[in-house]
Every structure is written in structure tokens, then in C-alpha cells.
What we know:
Layout: H1 11-38, E1 54-59, E2 66-73, E3 90-94, E4 108-113, E5 119-130, E6 137-145, E7 154-163, E8 169-177
Amino acid sequence: MRLLNGPGEDDGGTVFRDVILLALLGFVTFVIMLLPHLNPPTKDTATAQPPGNVVVEVHWPNKLDSDVDLWVEAPGDRPVGYSNKGGRIFNLLRDDLGRTGDQTDLNYEVAYSRGVPAGDYTVNLHLYRNRGGTLPIAANVVVSVKNDEGERLRQVAKKRVRLANVGQEMTVMRFSLDGKGNVVPGSIHTIPRPLRSGGRRG
């Protein structure tokens, strides 16, 4: 018959060692079961879509200390820009002042709509301030549309313009959307339509 305990070893030492081993095994099992919950899978940020149905963006050269204002007007709504950041349809979600109060070198403004009402849209730019002194200022304007929440934005218009003087307001584009969010053929033009209000920046 084989002895379980070696010379000088009692049953108390064996029990203590078994209890420690079982406690360690239980702890390891608990950690393994907990790991999937510590870092749950997240949605791929590369496929995340911004909110809004009609998205109008303007970008001008980074690091340039110039304040370019985006103004947009949706069908049956009042113009939306720095002095009126929200309407029934559009909201201006970023008012970029150039280098003033900005933690980054990026220069852009963006407006989003709620819904895609059919009718005429206007997109204007206004050169409010130019502390950098660089003229003209090249700006890229992009208009994208999506009908449903799960749909991806599709670019419907893009234009590059140059702002030559402080105080200049330019109609970058006017266009019409149908009831499905498509640009009505032949509706894009640049006939001037002033949108900026006379309000002072706060």
C-alpha cells in the first residue's frame, strides 16, 4: 500500500495545499469568464456615419487664421449660419473662427439637416475675418445626402471656390432635391442669393 504523505508530512499540510490550489483555480476561472465583459466588441468607427440627412461641409487651408462662415438655406426655412445656428431643418454644428479659441489647426464648418424636404437649397460662404492676411482663400464645399438612418451618405455636389476679400459673401451653389433626396437634373446653379444676416458675432 502506497503512503499519500511523505516522511514528516501530515494531513493538515495536504489539505492546506489543496485549498490554496482550489482557490487559485477558482480565481483563474473567474478571470477567464470575466474577460469577454471587460472589453465588449464595439462598432467599427470607420463605418460610423454622421447624423443628419443633408450634410454641407466647407474646408479651407489648415493653420490659416481666417474665419470663413458657412450659410445654408433649406426649402421654406430661414438661413442658418453663425448668427442663427438653428432653423426648422438645418443646424450649424461647428462655427470655426480660424485660430481663435481653437485647439486644432483644422479649418472647417459643417451643417446638418433633419429630413430631406424637397425643394430649393442655397449654400453660401462669407469671409468674416482674415487675420492671416492670405488672399484669396480657397475653400472646398461638399454636399452629401442620405434618406434613411441606416443609409450611407452619398455626395451629390462639390465645388472649390476662392474668397478674395474680407466681407465677401458668395453663393457657392443652389440646387433642388426631389422627394427621394436626389438632385433635380439641371437645377445646380450659382445665381447669387444673399443669406447672411446683419447680426454681430457674439
